[in-house]
## 1
Amino acid sequence: MKLKTKEVKNITVIELDGNVIGGPDASALNDHLHMLITENKKKIVIDLKAVSFINSSGLGMLIGGLTTMRNSGGDLKLAYASKKIENILEITKLHKVFDLYKNVNDAVTAFK
C-alpha cells in the first residue's frame, strides 16, 4: 500500500493505493497520522478510490487511525469506498462508526 497526502481546502487528504492489509502499512499510517497531529492537521479524509482489497487487519488499521485522530481532538472520514468495501463496513457494523462519503469533496465539505 502507498500513501500520498495532499491538502484540499485546509483538510488533509490521504490517498491509499493498493491492498489495505495492516502489518507494516498500519505502522506507516499511524506514524503519518501522528506526524500530521504534530503539525496541527487534525481533519483527515482517507481516499479509498485506489484500494482494491481490505481485510480485517486493514479495517483495524482504519479504526486505529480514527481513534488516534479523535483522541487528538480531530476526526477522520472515508471517501470513495468501493461497493465491496461498503459491504464489508456494513457487515462489520463499522458504517456506524465511520463517516463515509461518495467523494473527497463531500467529505471535505462535511468538516465545515
Note: Strands lie at 2-8, 11-20, 43-54, 75-79, 99-101.
## 2
Amino acid sequence: MIKVPRNGLAKGPDGELRCFWGVSAPDYVEYHDREWGFPVADDRRLFEKLCLEGFQSGLSWLTILRKREAFRRAFAGFDPARVVRFGARDVTRLLGDAGIVRHRGKIESTINNAARALEIIAERGSLAAYVWGFVPAAGERPRIVTRAALRTMTQTPTSVALSKDLKRRGWTYVGPTTVYAFMQAMGLVDDHLEGCVIRRAAEAARPGGVPADRQVVRRA
C-alpha cells in the first residue's frame, strides 16, 4: 500500500513525486503523466471526455478508464456526426455491450449530446472554441494547488457557468462537478499538485504558459 504524505504526493515508478492518485493504480500512471491536465483542442476528444465524465457519475474514473477503448468502439470513436445517427437498435446494442457501462440514461444522453455538440460546432466553429471560452479567470483558483485546496474544490464559478450554459443548450449529465472534472482533465485548469513532477510541463503546455517554441505538449 502506498503511504500518502500530507502534501498529497507519492513516488512514481521512476522515483519522482506525483499527485498521489496518479500512482494509486498502474493504469493511472500514464494517464496522469501524458493526459490529465494537458490542453486538448481536438473536438472528438473533448466530446468523448464530456460523455465519459457523464458515464463516470456514481462510479470511479478508473472504472471508466479501463473501459475507454470499449467505449470508443461502441460509440464510433466519439465522432458526434456518427453518434447523432444512433437509433433504438443502437441503444439496444449498447445495453448488451458488457465492455461499457450499460446505463440507458447515460447511453441516450451521449446520443443527445452528440446533437448538441454539432449545434455548438455549427455556431462557434468547433467545440474547442466554445469550451476554451470558459477558461477560469485569474484568482478563481489558488496559484499553488495543494491537496487541501483540491479536496474542497469539486466545482468552481467557471464550472458552474459552463454547466449552466451546456444545460441551457440541452446537454445532459453535465453538472458542475462533472464539468470541473472535465476541465481538469482537458487542461482548462492545471490541478497537478505543487511538487508534482508533471505540473510544470502541464502548465507550460497551456495557452499563455510559455512561448510556443518552448512548449512541452504530451499527446495520448
Note: The mean pLDDT is 88.
## 3
Amino acid sequence: MSTSRFFRVPLGEIGYVRAIVEGYDGLAVVRAPDAKRGEIEWLIGEGLEEEADAVVRRLERECGLIEIARPIDWPAC
C-alpha cells in the first residue's frame, strides 16, 4: 500500500518537482488535480518513505516545497 503526502509548491515549480520525484524509479507518483492551486500529492511507493523524506528535504531548500495536511476538498483517486 502506498503512502500519500501533500505539499504546497510555487506554481512555477510544479513541473520541476514532478520531474525530480518521478525521476527516482518507483519512489512516488505526483498528482496535481488543479495546478493553479499549487497543491500536489505524492503517492509514495511501499518501503520508500525514508528516501522520499530525503527528497522532501532537498526540495524544501531548492524550491520552497511545504508539507501540508490533506486539503478538505482534495479529489479522490
Note: The two ends are 14 Å apart (CA to CA).
## 4
Amino acid sequence: MKRKASRAVAANVRALRVARGMSLGDLASASGTGKATLSRIEAEHGNPTVETLYALADALGVPFGALTAEAAPGARHVRAGEVPHVGGSIEARVLTQIAGGALVEALEVTFPVGQVRSASPHPAGVTEHLLLTEGRLRAGPVDALAELDPGDVLRFAGDVAHQYAAIGEQPARAIVLMAYPSA
C-alpha cells in the first residue's frame, strides 16, 4: 500500500473507531484483527490486506472504501496510479463511490490463480454486482456458486458467506459494485 493510501486508512480507521466509542481492543475483537496489527495500521506503519480492511469495515459498519478514501473536493481527477490499491489473497482498487441515500462503490478486483477468497458476510442489505472482465471465475454465495466467463454479470446478497476463485490458468479480473443500503 502506498504511503498516501496508508495515511488515509490510518486516519479513517482511527476516526471511525473513535466516533463509535470503540477502543483498539474493542475493534480488534469485533474484526478478528490483532490489537498490535490495528495499532500499526492506525500509526501508518501497517500494510493491511484486503481481508483485514473488509473485516475492519464490517466491524465498523462502513463500506470498504470508507477506509481507503481521502476527503476530496467536489471534482477530482484521480490518476490510475493514485487509486488506492490493497493486496492480500486478492488485489482490489476502489475505483469510485456513488452516494445519495444508498452508497455504491466500484472496485476493480484481481483474483489470482490457485487461491480461494472466502468472504464473511457484509452488513445486512449489502448487494454485490460483479462484472467479469478477464479470465474465468467461480463466485457467489457458498451455497450457490456460479461459473462466470468474461462479460458475465453476477448479482448476489453480500450479507451471506461468499467466495471467489479464478478457474483456469490465468487470473480473473472483475469490476465489483458494492451497494450499501445506507451510507
Note: The chain has five helices and ten strands.
